[in-house]
Amino acid sequence: MSQSLRAVRGMNDIFLDEAETWEQFESLIRDWLKSYGYRPIRTPIVEPTPLFRRAIGEVTDIVEKEMYSFEDALNGEHLTLRPENTASCVRAVMQHSLLHSGPKRLYYYGPMFRHERPQKGRYRQFHQIGAEALGFAGPDIDAELILMCARLWDDLGIQDIHLELNSLGSSEERAVHRAALITYFEAHAEQLDEEAKRRLYSNPLRILDTKNPDMQALVEAAPTLMEYLGEESLAHFNGVQSILKDNAIPYRINTRLVRGLDYYNRTVFEWVTDQLGAQGTVCAGGRYDGLIEQLGGKSAPAAGFAMGVERLLALWQSSGGEPEREVPDIYVVHQGEAAQTFAFRVAEDMRAHGYSVLLHCGGGNFKAQMKKADGSGAPCAVIIGDDEAAAAEVTLKPLRDGGEQRRVAADQLADVLADLLFAVEDDDGSL
Ligand code: ATP
Ligand code: MG
Known about the structure:
The protein is of the alpha+beta class. Helix content is 37%, strand content 20%.
């Protein structure tokens, strides 16, 4: 196949078994979000570029080098494929005045786009599930967001995951800390790498996030924001922690957790696993009280998280959480002209009764069709010849447990299948 027609690097096709795993996962996720009162929001995949520049911040990895931005060839608008969904949610909430009727718990699900170096767990089109709680100021909602994640890990049977927690304080507290950091790094300028030097005055906090091993000791000894938190920020942080403790959620305070996006304040957290190599952060979130105002709206508090679906699915699978493959209830085999006409009727009738039916298409002899029926995984085949068609009957053949095949009147088939497929054990264990 010509190289130019292949999918864009870092953007994946998802199909068949894997796509079914995704769908099962998605339905589980929706139930989980709804059980906490979160309601869906769907925003466009393309937004005006200034939205992300203003929301995420100019001096961030995303805005500096990861955005798919382009000029609309028809009207010259500057557009960007969304690299995350919080900015769009906040835009939509402002545009439609959703907070007028009180705080909102919202969730989104869908593809995001970042121009990164593709590797395991890091793609250029990837998917996120996110929850955003808008209009809530207290530590209760921060804690609930975290508890929610813990319940999902439980539901999915994921054990190898831990919580890292930090507080970024208020913008005033950060400003004082920022000044202290600059003074500290200036005093050790000879130990800074190029990236750190570049960020020293624009975003010194991000230096703490460096992956350069030569700078670890320097960063380790830097002044922490925790030392600069005021009374209110401390009370908020303690509030979150006490709910986590009440609910037996273990966590580790990581004062170097700063997150890659600019809009966070107070609580930030990440759920991290050792199972996925370098791409170990499965979920990241926190509070972003300043964002709505920063985008020109009426100030309102907010908190949320985003999970990487590809990483979460990989972790689910490594925890043995592969769902069962779906198979049709019956496979309909038919031979002859009258039989085909009748087979279509029987198949539609069974679907109307709620069964999933794979109707053999494409002809072939009886043996070949039975082979297909076997390969489909269906628990039984419904066999129709011209004989059966003339008598308005079908032959029902169990495929898995060696049961006897038998003739069944077509108008009885739905009931007979119900007995066969959904035989439920009584309390005493008998069928
Ligand atoms: P990282 O440090 O791994 O680049 P990030 O801080 O950029 O992550 P966020 O913007 O917080 O990530 O996104 C939330 C989650 O989305 C991440 O924790 C991760 O699970 C997932 N994620 C982010 N970028 C990618 C990507 N390129 N491919 C797959 N998943 C991603
Ligand atoms: Mg990133």
